[in-house]
């Protein structure tokens, strides 16, 4: 009886690793749990390494600050099939030295997020552009090391780019952004926020070349004016969302046609803003017949 029960016992690690455990179980576990499992036994360590070698998505956003750079290098040293890589919370330790080998051996990457990675340099962006020809989504927010030459390299080699976030990339000026707009015609989402160098020239070039644009963030672009917003309304019929908060030269005269198309705009109409201010002063919202 005991022998029969022993024969019927099946342990987790007895299941086929690459056919069952990796694609159907481990892929649903958060990365921090996988890292913990590595410490259980030598067998679990080997299993997790098999998973990391074959995983398509590697997201450190939840545990980035606590991951030693040596562990990062070890976890991805054999992976050549990554499609998505997120390093947005790894600013304290990630540098070109850790990232360049990973980029070089993963030419199928479609999504890369390096937002706020202040320890990187333009060499990482050039490496992405040269190695990842199928790149579709790129996060570079608050990467002040992004310059005109590296962005041009990206535009030259990644024409299929669909979204890019270059918020607060303050080295970039109109010439680089216009160049990207002419090369990356499939852009659907673009953030140029918090860059005082961005003018109407950039916005108009984006509008005229990226006709499928759906989301545009111009928050804090102080030199953007009504002229380019009107061009945006004319050339981008698929636009769904526009952010122009703190764009003091953009007024309701250019935003109203977009509102009538149900484009979501982060700035309230003047009357609505006035009512909110009045409510703050009076303590209640007065009734106003808007149909008069």
UniProtKB/TrEMBL annotation:
A GO-annotated cellular component: SCF ubiquitin ligase complex
Family matches, as Pfam families: F-box
Start and end residues of each F-box domain: 12-49
Keyword Repeat applies: yes
Pathway connected to this protein: Protein modification; protein ubiquitination
CDD domains named among the record's database cross-references: F-box_FBXL15
Single biological process term from Gene Ontology: SCF-dependent proteasomal ubiquitin-dependent protein catabolic process
Top-level taxon of origin: Eukaryota
Keywords: Cytoplasm, Leucine-rich repeat, Repeat, Ubl conjugation pathway
Subcellular location per the Swiss-Prot or TrEMBL entry: Cytoplasm
Database matches in PANTHER family: F-BOX_LRR-REPEAT PROTEIN 15, PARTNER OF PAIRED, ISOFORM B-RELATED
Assembly description: Part of the SCF (SKP1-CUL1-F-box) E3 ubiquitin-protein ligase complex SCF(FBXL15).
Task performed by this protein: Substrate recognition component of a SCF (SKP1-CUL1-F-box protein) E3 ubiquitin-protein ligase complex which mediates the ubiquitination and subsequent proteasomal degradation of target proteins. Acts as a positive regulator of the BMP signaling pathway. Required for dorsal/ventral pattern formation.
Family: Belongs to the FBXL15 family.
Record protein name field: F-box/LRR-repeat protein 15
